[in-house]
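Q: Structure for this?
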Amino acid sequence: MSEITRVALDAMGGDNAPSEIIKGAIDAVGREKNLKVFLVGQEEAIQKELQNTTYPKDQIEIIHASEVIETAEPPVNAIRRKKDSSIVVSMNMVKKGEADAVVSAGSTGAVLVGGQVLVGRIKGVERPPLAPLLPTKTGVSLLIDCGANVDARPSHLVQFAKMGSIYMEHVMGIRNPKVAIVNIGAEEEKGNALVKSTFPLLKECKDINFIGSIEAREIPHGMADVIVCEAFVGNVILKLYEGVGAVLVSKIKDSMMTTLKTKIGALLVKPALKKTLKSFDASEYGGAPLLGLRGLVVKTHGSSKAKEISNSIIQCITFKNQGINEKISECIQKKEENLED
Amino acid sequence: MSEITRVALDAMGGDNAPSEIIKGAIDAVGREKNLKVFLVGQEEAIQKELQNTTYPKDQIEIIHASEVIETAEPPVNAIRRKKDSSIVVSMNMVKKGEADAVVSAGSTGAVLVGGQVLVGRIKGVERPPLAPLLPTKTGVSLLIDCGANVDARPSHLVQFAKMGSIYMEHVMGIRNPKVAIVNIGAEEEKGNALVKSTFPLLKECKDINFIGSIEAREIPHGMADVIVCEAFVGNVILKLYEGVGAVLVSKIKDSMMTTLKTKIGALLVKPALKKTLKSFDASEYGGAPLLGLRGLVVKTHGSSKAKEISNSIIQCITFKNQGINEKISECIQKKEENLED
């Protein structure tokens, strides 16, 4: 239980690198003893940030990587060519068994490609899904898949449901998580070709608590813990969530600044309002795991600050201690055997 | 220009029928002289509502229809069997040229099926899309398609773009409306198979102002006037929009009721806040047109009150006076000719 979790942290990824990333690492090792963080990136820049800070030297180590993958670079090329980039070096550490997990706020595309190509899939996993947590009225739900591989097959979605269910149960601590598939109506006969083919397969799964279809309207109400969809739809949901929230909040703030009366009112409601809006902010819950890999890869928001980085690192400890990958492997293999029956 | 627009109003459809529907009709004829509304439904129930109200008798007429299609009924069966339902009778009035448009807050499925089967498509239109208006930071955008027919082809999406563009320009008065396709990244090479095949076709279209891909995050910011997608994605966007808005607003309201201080603050900001939230409420903008039919069919929210019904009826007048169907027909035919070249 108390084995050390080793996290390769991409010190150069994201809008606030390296400063906030390194602050996040220092915060995380302050919270957890059984943790080692490798700060992967340009040594000079990292050293500069570490100056004048105090931290347990045995828990933080710099791994020099001379290159940086930019957000705009085509991911496949970047991973292939920038062998000494912080993302590639981090991924290779997991591949070689020198680290258990990678945390990166860098290019989503490069993280997804690097995870698949360098870290590699667990045997039997057809497609590793990116699974962010969405804030809801009642807590959080896992949205699986939001990755870069679109046009999924029904068998992919079934694996997403299983992996998502394991994650929510053992990392997030939700017992017997409710699994639903995104659809445009509640009835089984509704949906596009993919959903119609996947629905009966999910119904047959004995190792998940499948509750049927979920309409997009119900997602923010927290009607399901694991929300299964293919990546195009997942991306639309994730980004629209952010967009509608951002626009609505900005409109509400504007409306409170129109008159002296509303300004006074705004002062009075501000602290409570801030707390509410924070609870609806995805970055509070750490990054999105890329599941089904031989190791763990966590993608945090490009705009991540120290808190999200720290939370994402802590997430890796639970992931390792709970043996999530062993559980995924067992669950997927079992399915494989069943199919061979 | 001042020809009379004749609207067959489904008096029995929606959660608030017939009371709010009939109030909406009375409001509309009060606003517009060149308008005739047929209240289609059970005569006795309609008469009861009309008692003790005053309205111009020459502008409102009851058309008896003995049956009502319930929301839960399978649409195809309902349309086929309930020949004397308010929806079927309304649609047939348009088919026979006795009305120009149908407005219904009833079963979405039945309205979509009825529109296609009874009213019929404009020659050359492959699939009639349902196109609701979404509130944005800067105004409204047309989301096309949110209908019931999923798994669209690229040629469908191209027609959606053209019809949506005509609607936004001539009904909503937006000059040279910006058309975008929903995608998971800005680059042309991104997307699923459907989007990748559709993108170059839209780029070639000379009669629309195609601005490229739009990520879901940008939709609420009002980055495009016409947002093209296939119906599964459209349904997800429309319903998530409603869901995130509703949950966020309810959380904000709750947060303002936590202490005496916040309650006083809430009183001060309430009127401004209410106005803001109203501007983000889709029902303010009338119903969603089902485009590409030989006539106009407008589907309003099931929860429609008098104001949305009234706005939807007024929408039909602009639609007719602007010759939208003639413009759609011309635009689609032109494409057909081009293809034959």
